[in-house]
Each structure stands twice: as C-alpha cells, then as structure tokens.
What does this fold into?
Amino acid sequence: MRTSTKKNFLKQLIPFVFTVSIPLSEAAQSHWIGSWGASPVFPVGQDMNQNTIRQFVTLSQGGEKIQLRFSNETGTQPLMIGAVTIARPGAKPGSIDSKSLKQVLFGGQKNIIIPPGAPALSDPIDFNVNALDDVAISLYLPQRTGLSIVHPNGEQTAWIDSNGNTTANEELSQTATTSTMRFYLSRVEVATDQQNGGTIVTLGDSITDGYSSGVDMNQRWPDVLAKRLKQANINNIGIVNAGISGNRILNDLPSGQNGPSSLSRLDRDVLSVPNVRWLVIMQGINDIGHSNFDGLTKQEVSADEIINGWKQLISRAKNQGIKTYCATLTPFKGEFLNFYSEKGEEKRQAINTWIRTSNTCDAVIDFDAVIRDDKKPQYIKAEFDVGDGLHPNANGLKAMAESIDINLFN
It folds into this structure.
C-alpha cells in the first residue's frame, strides 16, 4: 500500500475505532462479594465416576445473582464437570424444590473441563437470596476423577448418587450415600445492588473450620458472626470461611488433608475473593503442636518463625488494601494427640504477646481472653471445651464470635 493511500485509510479508520462502544459483561457491572467458602486440600476424597453430588450451603449474605467457583487447583488431572444445578432445599433431607431449579452454565455451556491447577467460575445466575438462606448445588461428574478434591471437615451433609446425572431430580436415588466432606465447590459469590459491599475472609485452622461444632448446625464462629451481622441489619458484607482443619502457616502436612499451608494458599483463598476488605487470621497452633508428632519433629519451628509467617500474611494482605485483624491463639493443654508441651505453651504466649503489643495488625481480636480458664490459663474453660483441651465446643465458638466488635467491619 502506498504511503498516501495508507494515511487516507488510517484517517477513515481512527474515528471508527474511537467511537466503538464495548459494553462491560454483566458480571463486570455487578458488585460481587463472597458469601460462602470451603478451602480445598490436596486430593484425598473418593474417586467419582458418573456420580451426582448434592451439597447444601448456608449463605452469609444475600444478593440478586449467584456465581459458583469450582476448584481443580490441587488436582493433577483434568476435571470434567458434566452438569450443575442450583435450587432451594426441599422438604426431605437431600431433596430440592424443583420449582426453584436453575441450570448453571460455564460460558453458556452446561459442561466444562477444568485443567489441573485451575478453578472455574460459573456464569452469573439470576437467583435472588437473602442472608442465611440455604441453597442446594448439584454437581455431575461424568468420568473418573481420581481422588477427589475436597474440604475434609465440611460439618455438613453432602449426598452422593451413583446413578448418573440426577442433578435435576427433586429427590436423589434411594441408594445415595452421604459424606460430611465438601467436594470441588470452593466458593459461592453473590451480586448486590450496594456498591459499598465487601467481604470478610477468616483464615485459620480447625477452630475456624468449625471442628466438632455439629453437623448441619452452622455453629462455626464465622457462622455466628454472620448471624450477628444480619441481626444488626448489615446487609452488604459477606463472610468466606477459609479455615482448614490441621492447617499450618509454614508447612504442608504429608497426609495432604491439611494443606496447602496458609502462606501458599493466601492468593487462592483470600486475595482472589471479590471485594475482600477484611482478613481475620487465627493460626499457628498447629505449627506448634504438630512438631510433637512422629515424623514431623524435623518441622519444629520457633515462635519467631511463626511470627514472621504472620508478618508475611499481613504484608501481602495490606498490599492489596485489606484490613488485617489478628486473633490470639487459644489454650491447647489437653488430650489431643500429645499436642501440648511446656515449650509449645511458651511459643503460644510469645505469639500472643506479639499480636497484642506489636501494632502490626489493624486490630486485635482476643479469643484467648474469651475462652481461657483464668485460674489455669493453659486450659480452655470447661464449659467451652469440646473435650480434648484444644477445640472449643459450640458454646465456646459462639462466645468467640460474640466477643468481636462488629464496628470493625464498617
């Protein structure tokens, strides 16, 4: 093309280029917040093949639309999802209200293949929900998955049907089995009409995860905090629970059920959450206690090393404009797997002193002061102890949540 001709062509093209309007996608125009979460560990669940899994979740916050996140982030082979539906629960256990049923799509398609190491977000679904509503999400896996990617301590009943794609069935087959694990579903996000909404993420271990808090009871401390927000008519803040039982800050566990470490999963479980504005961290007791286990003594870490791990988590969150609140480590002297040692107690006290006095955190949430026995501060109060000296029971978790100043989340 001659130079003069080329210049004339560009003169005609430039006005067109600058007047083209490319509309934002519907998802981009909506204000999304996280409303529920279950952090996946390394693959340890059962092999699925032509199975439907129906899972029930209680949302911390409502919205006009829903978006689902499925995880193959710790997987080693592609994951084929054949179909997904969402509905309101039915009258019978494991059933759905078929009138509310909606098909979930991925880029307009009913199925998707998720490569190893990746998540998948669904298309936005028109599905109006309120805070603390329950929804049923049914997932069909048409081909062999290998070990499933799960959240082991789900504290919620999931239904597994081996009779093919029954995602649209009001009731699953009579041969359906149950599990208290979470399978592949890692987050539920909602779109609100309030542009100042935000998400709280709670990063922690079994105490945040809700160990022994009661199956299908929603008595984890983040659940109680969600109820308090609703009672206070705060309708623009969601909570994503990123607790993993047995999780540590600095190291994975060889079993795979408790990892990845919080330092390695921070981007996945916290920074990727839409409009995350607050991070509550309560972690370190497993970094202390697991070093007493056979085969893990070489992973013993000092209080300073654990504190440096905290500093990394806080710095990375603050770099994204997230307010970070640090929760003190609660007592752990008891019968749980030889967890306790005097040396470990010294580490816990050193970490708690740093949390309370360093001014590194935007605020301190003193869970230790809430549930410890003041006469024997190495112990949880008897009325708050699940029975092993490490885990608070439902009453203890409730007391922890009720001690939090909700004005922190303005």
